[in-house]
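Hello forum,

I keep getting stuck at the same step: I have a sequence, I want structure tokens, and every attempt I make locally crashes halfway through. Rather than fight my setup again tonight, could one of you with a working pipeline run this one for me? It's a single chain of 534 residues.
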Amino acid sequence: MTEGVKTLIYLGVALVVAVSAFVSRPRQIEVVLDEKVGEVLFDTFDDPSKAASMEFVRYDSEMGELRDFKVARDKQSGAWTIPSNAGYPADAEQRMRDAALMLVDLKVLGIASQVPADHAYFGVLEPDREKLRLGDDGVGQLLTFEDAKGQSLAGVIIGKTVKGADDQRYVRIPGQDIVYVVRIDPKQLSTRFQDWIEQDLLKLSSWDIEEVAVKNYSVEREMTRATLIRDFDFAAKFADNEWKLIELTNYRNGEPSKVAELPANQELDKDKLNSLKTAVDDLKIVDVFRKPKGLGRDLKAGTDFMKDLASQKDLQARGFYPYETAGAAELYCANGEVHVGMKDGVQYVLRFGETVADTGDEPAEGRNRYLFVTARVNMDKFPQPELEAVPELPSGVKEKSESGAADEQPKPEAAESDAADAEPKTEADAEREAAEAVILQERERINKENQRKLDDWNENVKKAKEKVAELNTRFGDWYYVVSEDQYKKIRLPLSDLIKNKTASEDSPDTSAAPEVEGDGVDAFRNLQDQGLEP
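Reply #2:
Ran it on my machine without issues. Output:
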């Protein structure tokens, strides 16, 4: 074989290798760079309403972990939810549109690089959970949108700020090498859970709060048992623009001791009670977690739940302790309860658990606390209506129907015969019939009024029950997290609920009142020791 033939063979092999390498190289989207400048980056994403889900992923280099926030429209109900927060309902229509508009009509201002080795320099490395390591630098923020079928609409990795242009950023489309310069501000995209939900937890008005009750107790744990250690029960009602004591019960060694009325030198602290009402109105959601399966919306569960150790541990870790009673399970909570009664007969029950570490993307101001919320109907608001007594029917007289006819009417032939044989009515007969007519008319009036009262009562109870069912459906699946500051304004100690009166010329003479040391529970216990009968 001649040298020339060998050379041709080598050249042919090299050509085949080069063609193979070209064909098998990673496919890249063809981009004419000069033509791309000034054009939109995503020419097919022109309608923000097409976006059915959004995901934002960023890398925490200090913790070496990814933070993921996702909002999506539920395929069955069509409602917005937050999958990254256990599917909690989102108030996302306008925020989703605003977020999608960040990529709609996003124009390319320039090309920074086409070299993969430059990605870290421009901060557009993809936040990939499998590839990232603690301390990695140059990782960008990934923003993606999908349609209702799960197909990608648009997505960018947002990198560093362009030097000298604070409103511009380096970005890269996932899977491509080209680094673009665009005008985008990821700070405008909130990934705070609270910004995407209806943050008002109870959705009530403090003006409609009529009663508050504080049940102060602690839970003593022994192995698998939890014992309730009661301290005091307090209840007050707001009526005629003032607070009135309903109940005050102290517990000593588990034995209740009721106080009929406050000593002359003490009174309810109306400022603290008013602040409690305001704090309940202002109660905001900080975070949510799903509660264990099997625990009902009324916080009751069957005995099977008591055998589920994983669910019990989940509850106990948050400060809620199930206990069996009458074949079912109920809950104690680590930091007592507050009951809030409304004018419409709905009563909110707030059960406070343990404190919780910060779980969000942004540090919390102070501690937060777990909270269970349920609602129930306060039947004390719906006393049975007082019905007026109905006069008895005169002997021989039958009640008439609504049409005015007697319940039992004679046949037409018999009526005609009776009319022909009847004797003329006397004056006494006329007076008797007139008196019977008056009684029948009064009975009809009273029956209608009584029925109206019963209908009103039934309707009011029905509305209260429907509202309670709606509320428990909303509250039922969740542990809520609220701020510690709000908790302290709601779950007040007795020393904040009752105070010593301020001395003044108008104050009654209290010199004869027993001398009391301490405030709150201690004060009442001292009074009992000195002979005050509850």
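Confidence is low (pLDDT under 50) at residues 21-31, 405-410, 509-521, 527-534. If your local run keeps crashing, start a new thread with the error log.
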